[in-house]
Amino acid sequence: MLTLVEEAHMTTQAGHRPRVVIIGSGFGGLFAARALKRDAVDVTLVAKTTHHLFQPLLYQVATGIMSMGEIAPATREVLSRQDNVEVVLGDVTDIDLEKRVVTANTLGEVHTHDYDHLIVAAGANQSWFGRDEFAEYAPGMKSIDDALELRGRIFGAFELAEQAAAEGRLEDVKRFTTFVVVGAGPTGVEMAGQLVELSKRTLKHDFRHIDPTDSRVILLDAAPALLGSFDEKLQDKTRQALEKLGVEVRLGAKVVNVDGRGLETEDSEGNRTRIEALTKVWAAGVAASPLAKQLADQVGVTVDRAGRIPAQPDLTLPGRPEVHVVGDMVTLDGLSGVAQVAIQGARHSAKEIRRRINGEPTGAPFRYKDKGSMATISRFRAIAEVGSLKLTGFVAWLMWLAVHLVYIIGFKSRITTLLHWFVSFIGRGRSERAVTEQQTFARLAMQQMERPVDLRKVSERPPASVD
């Protein structure tokens, strides 16, 4: 076992600067890279997307308020002025802790990256609680692709309803204009609120055969209360506000079946209820990246039910002080998978790496500073819980706007976001209503292919002839 000083000089003797590999371009990965900006290290950030996603605002992309570019700036652009960072597109498939090698795949091309220090911030995916078949009819909301698919399904449902009404198929109209959101956490609450705003304000005068204001929005959760991590009084006020908007809140309702025409719920007594609805949004449950299980197997620990890996108090792995894990894929002290946990964890890990390279003592435990929780209900109404301070209504909504603007990356994105919010919240318009069949059905088509896209085969296809 090398001492801290011996390891600190090891890379210099080998002829290169310390190599730090970061997996993931979310809050954890991006802020870890930024935190190492002034250090004499070579950082390689490997991510399976080309962008940094501001996930808390995905529902606004899905409901036509914002464009995807405003919440998903290119990672290369964000880090373009940081000379010690190289950005690599690739889906990490293997981490060899013994050899200190990360293997990634980019559309069929396999590449490896050696490291001296590793930060794994691979995040989490949507979870359907073991019923992955539900995803075909109830897509989640964890990626840009998800948001664009949902936008297509939501706006497409109104188009189908208009056609059905013109043909006199009134039962179909009811099914097409019923929207079900599964999961009453912040994402589900915000999505339900915006679906009501969309149907009652934005689309109110746009159709000739249907009245969009007659649409139903149903919010489901198996838990006995919505917004489970918030104060009980805020939970009650949120439910009252949602029901005043017209959202049907059904708690203690577990989804047991989902199909193309609707879904079925079951209450605590085993009674089942059928809801006919074309559009279902799954906002319940997350599962950590499969890399968490891979790492756990190598260090001899067990992941939890959500697939998260237990970390040491300093966010390293047992016996692997050079490996740090941050964000949604980690379980430590009951911390939730919110952006601030990932950001603060990334900065802590960067600091520990800096100390290790300098031969200084490491192992300082990660101390999370809770900056509070917020959720928006509708325009001009939100809830905020910051320590003992609990706010609702317009003041909380202004706080929500300010906090989200701060964490949107880039001055240009902040300005355009403000403009979109002004148009949508002060007026009734939404500038991002364009949808395509490709956005709506590409995910299902790719799944039916049952194989990944191989860039080499695509590039080898002969060009189409032009007669």
TrEMBL record:
One of its GO terms (molecular function) is NADH dehydrogenase (quinone) (non-electrogenic) activity. The keyword DNA damage does not apply. It is an enzyme of class 1 (oxidoreductase). Residues 19-345 form the FAD/NAD(P)-binding domain. Its EC number is 1.6.5.9. InterPro entries: FAD/NAD-bd_sf, FAD/NAD-binding_dom, NDH-2. Pfam families: Pyr_redox_2 (PF07992). The chain crosses the membrane at residues 391-411. Keywords: FAD, Flavoprotein, Membrane, NAD, Oxidoreductase, Transmembrane, Transmembrane helix. PANTHER family: EXTERNAL NADH-UBIQUINONE OXIDOREDUCTASE 1, MITOCHONDRIAL-RELATED (PTHR43706:SF47), NADH DEHYDROGENASE (PTHR43706). Belongs to the NADH dehydrogenase family. This is NADH:ubiquinone reductase (non-electrogenic).
